[in-house]
Amino acid sequence: MSSVLFVCLGNICRSPTAHGVFQALVERQGLRDQIRVDSAGTGAWHAGESPDSRATQAAARRGYDLSQQVARQVVAADFDQFDYILAMDQANLAHLRQMKPEAYSGYLGLFLDFADCSESEVPDPYYGGGQGFEQVLDLVESASEGLLDAIRRGGR
Ligand code: 4NP
């Protein structure tokens, strides 16, 4: 059993997209019982809300269902629960590094470390136009494939 937590700022755009896309990949590969997937935000402003409708609609056009997700803030106990904690950008990662218990033995890093692309961060689409949500999906789809390969190789 492996577990993956995706983290962005609000948990309504980028990390729910990563959650939905990676969950779909895991299910397509028949690994639903072996890989647990969740997402959270470093901020609490949107806790309890559904994902942003622009994210939900863009994802739905590619066949991913984000509609059942509910935003939450990342908590210290997440470091006991997740083998991989993956940040969407450097600011999210800096926040998580401050929270990280010294004894955490999992992988804390940027999600796009697993993508086959030159970008290192998933840009925040919240204040931009619809194209931003398409770019999030492109980056997340690429990194999801790489992450699954890494989990399979690492066996964590
Ligand atoms: P996310 O996008 O971090 O990808 O969920 C954002 C959502 C909300 C805000 C910022 C980013 N906000 O400032 O409320």
Explain this structure to me?
The protein has 156 residues and is an alpha/beta fold. It has one domain: Rossmann fold (3-Layer(aba) Sandwich). The protein is built from five helices and four strands. It has helices at 14-28, 53-61, 78-81, 90-99, 130-154, and strands at 2-8, 35-41, 84-87, 107-110. Strand 3 (84-87), helix 4 and strand 4 (107-110) form a beta-alpha-beta unit. Helix 1 packs across helix 5 and helix 2 (53-61) packs across helix 5. The protein is globular, with a radius of gyration of 14 Å.
Distance separating the two termini: 7 Å
Order of helices and strands: EHEHHEHEH
Task: State the helicity in percent bands.
Answer: 40-55%
CATH topology: Rossmann fold
Strand content: 5-15%
| Number of H/I helices | 5
Q: What molecules are bound to this protein?
A: 4-nitrophenyl phosphate
**Widest sheet: strand ordering:** 2-1-3-4
Q: Look at the structure and name the CATH superfamily.
A: Response regulator
Structural class: alpha/beta
Q: Can you tell me the number of structural domains?
A: 1
Q: Could you give the count of β-strands?
A: 4
- Low-pLDDT stretches are none
Any idea what the CATH architecture is? 3-Layer(aba) Sandwich
Compute the CA-based radius of gyration: 14 Å
Largest sheet: 4 strands, parallel
Q: Give the CA-based shape.
A: globular
Secondary structure elements and their pairing?
Layout: E1 2-8, H1 14-28, E2 35-41, H2 53-61, H3 78-81, E3 84-87, H4 90-99, E4 107-110, H5 130-154
Parallel strand pairs: 1-2, 1-3, 3-4
Helix pairs in contact: 1-5, 2-5
The structure holds 4-nitrophenyl phosphate.
